[in-house]
Design goal:
The protein has 281 residues and is α/β, with parallel strands linked by helices. The protein is built from 10 helices and 7 strands. Strand 5, helix 8 and strand 6 form a beta-alpha-beta unit. Helix 1 crosses helix 2.
């Protein structure tokens, strides 16, 4: 099984990179993609836990935003982490998340939801990318909500009155950064309407023109109709269709390997990187 989109505690997952690797081994996954949000902090630990039988695709899920404010997540994989422009862009995105979190906490406090920024930071693993799931975990810890899902439903969704945007490159800029670093760019769950506003179908052409290599077609948050439409777009533009779990560990229903990428599609995707960077032991 090839699962190209998972998360660890280096961002908003609940498994450490090592625990994630162990679970992937136990689940029979042959190729695992580690795509923590806006960071490569979990790479080295994941590599250290790797054993024969599992190949590792390293990357990052890069937060992007269209000019009209629609959130887009771009999976960058198989890039050179020594590429300074990409690393600087990821650092800038991470830094902006802290100011954004303070504003969300302020809005919650104004609505008599008593939570502090220190309580949010307490949920963060060392070196991890700060995100709304950490605020959700803080709300769970204070028994304000019962689960991450409830926290997002009541307070943290993109459509919530407490939502605050943060700095992010445009999808075109994110693609160019990934490509200039030698990697491949795949837009993640682009028609996941439950997450909020979605990108327009027309916008895919400009992304492909910028170098986008694929679309995450098979994903829990996309309806069968949406997946069928995306498969047609993939065929039209001659790019790669991927499928993946978007596994985060405890607190999300997504299970490792519940959606996968075919061997043929993965071979096509890997061939688009400027070097062979799949890690094997």
């Amino acid at each position: 099984m090839i699962d190209l989109h998972t998360h660890s505690s280096a961002s908003d997952g609940t498994d450490t990179p090592g625990e994630l690797i162990n679970k992937a081994h136990a689940s029979g996954i042959s190729v695992l993609g580690l795509m923590d949000h806006d960071t490569v902090a979990g790479w080295d630990e994941a590599i250290s836990y790797l054993r024969p039988g599992l190949s590792l695709v390293l990357g990052s899920e890069i937060s992007a935003q269209t000019d009209d404010g629609i959130s887009v997540h771009m999976l960058g994989a198989l890039f050179d982490r020594n590429n300074l422009p990409l690393m600087e862009a990821l650092a800038k995105i991470r830094d902006s998340r802290y100011g954004r979190m303070e504003k969300i906490v302020e809005r919650l406090n104004e609505a008599d939801v008593e939570i502090s920024i220190e309580e949010v930071h307490a949920q963060l693993s060392e070196g991890a990318t700060l995100g709304r799931p950490h605020l959700a975990d803080a709300l769970v810890a204070k028994k304000i909500v019962k689960s991450r899902e409830e926290a997002f439903e009541l307070y943290l969704s993109n459509g919530s009155k407490y939502y605050v945007a943060y700095y992010a490159p445009t999808p075109i800029d994110a693609i160019r950064l990934i490509k200039e670093a030698g990697g491949v760019a795949v837009i993640a769950h682009p028609l996941a309407s439950l997450r909020g506003s979605i990108v327009s179908i027309e916008s895919f052409k400009s992304m492909v023109d910028a170098g986008m290599d694929g679309i995450e077609v098979s994903h829990r948050d996309q309806t069968p109709d949406a997946q069928e439409l995306l498969a047609k777009i993939v065929k039209e533009y001659g790019i790669v269709a991927t499928g993946s779990s978007d596994y985060h560990g405890t607190g999300k229903l997504n299970q490792l390997g519940e959606f996968t990428t075919t061997d043929e599609a993965f071979a096509q995707l890997e061939s688009r990187a400027d070097a062979r960077r799949v890690i094997k032991k």
